[in-house]
Amino acid sequence: MAEAADRDPTPSPAPDPTAGPTPGAEFDPDPEGHKGPLTIYLVKQLELAIRSFMDEALRPYGLTTFQYTALTVLQHRGGLSSAQLARRSFVRPQTMHEIVRSLEERGLIERAHTPGNRRVMEARLTREGEELLAACAPAVQKLEDRLLLDMPEKRRSAFRQGLEDGLASLTGRHHG
């Protein structure tokens, strides 16, 4: 369970480069000689902040960040089993089972047996699920815009590419 401080949507001030290490973060120089928290620590902090703001933005729609993620994965890759959906949503299969059940109960997804394998059920978005994602889009775009607001336009593409490259390095799934 995340600590209350990790869920606090109030942005933290920028770290003081002259201050000592952040609790829980190991310091290591980057290739350009800067000292600061490890990149993986910064990515985790960014993830926690995004999740907190996403949960807040999605609350009026009755969704959590994990539910929204599952719906968007289905929107892009419909016809997935719960296990496939869990892998693509970065959650445990047990967690996805609960997410799928709640989304199905709300009529946002439907499941049917896979042709050729009656033991596997595939989930797909319903029309209601598509409509809810469309309704959420402005709130999610607002958060995306806020994330990039203070980043110069020319650095946004490099930031995104760096995240994609890091993900590809860790997962072996290359984009492009």
From TrEMBL:
Residue ranges of every copy of the HTH marR-type domain listed in the record: 36-168
Biased composition (Pro residues): 10-20
Gene3D superfamilies: Winged helix-like DNA-binding domain superfamily/Winged helix DNA-binding domain
Database matches in Pfam families: MarR_2
Keyword terms, alphabetized: DNA-binding, Transcription, Transcription regulation
Region (Disordered): 1-36
InterPro entries registered for this protein in UniProt: HTH_MarR-typ (IPR000835), Tscrpt_reg_MarR-type_CS (IPR023187), WH-like_DNA-bd_sf (IPR036388), WH_DNA-bd_sf (IPR036390)
UniProt protein name: MarR family transcriptional regulator
Species of origin: Streptomyces cellulosae
Native organism taxonomy: Bacteria, Bacillati, Actinomycetota, Actinomycetes, Kitasatosporales
